[in-house]
Amino acid sequence: MEPFDPTTHPHRRYNPLTDTHVLVSPHRNKRPWLGQTEPTEPSNLPQYDPACYLCPGNTRAGGKVNETYTSTMAFENDYAAVLPPPGPVTPPAAHPLLTAEPIQGGCDVVCFHPRHDLSLPTLSLSDVENIVDEWTRVYVRRGTEPGIKYVQIFENKGAMMGCSNPHPHSQVWSLSTVPTLPAKELASLRNYASTTDVRSGVPTGPDGHACLLCEYVHHELSVPEEEGRVVITNEHFVALVPWWAYWPFEIMVLPHKRHISSFVHFTVDEKHAFADIMSRVTKRYDNIFSCSFAYAMGVHQRPLPPRRDVDGIYVQDADDIAHLHVHFEPPLLRSTSVRKFLAGFEVMAEPQRDLTAEQAAKRLRNCSEVHYLQA
Which candidate in 120, 218, 298, 371 could, as Cys together with 154 as Cys, close a disulfide (CB 3.0–4.6 Å)? Predict the structure, then answer.
């Protein structure tokens, strides 16, 4: 029997964050594609669009007028997915299998910049730092409201990811419950901390306990580059294609020097490094196929910001088990027009990918950090 080769032979990889598996089928990379293709995202947008409901001074679809903003702008979504309290109580379940629970909260839009034609990879580093500051302000403001138990920051970039407006923006949803995926991750982090011994030389989580993601990133940084999944690093953060990646060019960004639970725990240098790596990752994305690269991006951190004591110092609690990280999940697979679909096996059984995480990381490492529009 021939020896196992992860670049050729199908295998399953385990995701310890969500306690799931992904089927990897690298031998399928050579199959022909005669399926659906996607239109290319436009790259010639105007700096200002009078019809855009996110441009400065324009009237939004709900009738409100935007500020004439010059940096970032945050406002409450006119068509929010969840509504503020108080909300009606759900009626008794007709059957134990048919339960429902009320949910309240709020939804905010964070515009990255007044210019309609820019995005994270084409913004200046100081502009990206302004976005991090705005995300932090909304996270703290919403996370200290009564009844809120979780704040999710995310961006949908590109029409194929369901983005309804190309003006650079993200969203922040605040909920009266912790959603399914973050809850799974937090449970895995807690379980790892309570059942695993700390390894020498690895950063630790709260109270010196083992941290799943501290351990994971420490290992990834020890793997030789050509064999590994690391794409880029800076002084405080690393961007890598996770061992368990599902989407073709999926990336996770996370701190590697110490355990950081949320945006509010950043030092000035860490905030700068975070903005730097977010800018560099998205430039490489756009340069893979020389296009505005679509993705879903989400920040996972403490469900809520920590409270302060009488001296203004953040108080450590059980939620500090969270290890701040960012998920980038892009759909493009082979070109600007061929994307990955959630097909029958993935919907009915488990996630599957063709390109290995190591192959994807190598492709991304080989991309320039000079944006193709500025080269």
Answer: 298
